[in-house]
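Final report, closing paragraph on structural work. Over the funding period we assembled a curated collection of sequence-structure pairs, and we close with a single example.
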Amino acid sequence: MPVILTWGEIQDRFTDSLLLGNGASMAVHADFGYGSLFETARLNGHITPQVAEIFDQFGVNDFELVLRRLWQAKLVIQALEIPPGRVDEAYAEVRNALIATVRDAHVRYEDAEPHLAWIYPFMARFTTVASLNYDLIVYWAAMMGNRDIGRHFKDGFINGVFCEDWQELRQPYRGARGATLFFYPHGNLALTRTQDHGESKIGTQDNGRLLDAILQRWEQGTAVPLFVCEGTSAHKKQSIEGSSYLQRVYREVISSIGPSLVIYGWSLSEQDQHIVNQLRRRPPQRVAVSVRGNDQAFAQRAEEALLQAGIEEVVFFDSASPGCWNNPTP
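Its predicted structure, as stored:
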């Protein structure tokens, strides 16, 4: 039976990388406990019969994929000067359903802010942070940290574009004591695809207005979101291959995680097997996994999966331990 330790007992041995799953977001906002974004939309009444028919025609429940394909078709129609028709209507219906769903499900900055003050010092312990979540919690925490301790956190984007030589950003900026690079292997609300087939990041000076700024860009139709939150592992892997940024994070970041890795709030589900497969390419020597409520069944399953991936040492710690994620330090 795996032993569940406290974060304080192991923290000095784990400083390289942090991988965050949905449990990290749920610790801040319970409404992030979605089975899927599509299911959240359905439960909140945003999947009208017309929208459901559109998803049925594509054969998936993936907002990002359906919206992207409709948007691309819309751009082709505009370029050919074809009169607007069903494609435009379908695009607007799916877009509006996604916007309404995100407004319902996402935590307000004012409600997340007390948690961010504990999250960013925890993140700052690591050289690399990878969040599998589409929400803005990691982004907000990093921006709060940069305000409080200098420009410590970097997401690899300069002037809204991802750097070719992102590894060079590991050097601390002047005035910062260190550097933590953070990435989104499954994309994020703040990332977009643009009309020129590029990929960029949406930013704002006021973090409290960031979600509104993102949704406004979607409403204007000048960009579509870049994130993957639905489907099987194979489907997610296919979506990753369709994005330059996601490909680079998957191939360059996940496979260079370093000697130690902390997993917080990630269930290691079959839907994310592609992440485990990529870790296997250059496995860390030791992994610490958060466990909620002394869940021995999960701990045993996680231990087996990680040992099979070539990791030499797997330890477990209580997800409610003081000092980890959003848990205050005594």
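Residues 4-29+109-318 form one domain. The first strand starts at residue 4 and ends at 5. We thank the funder for supporting this effort.
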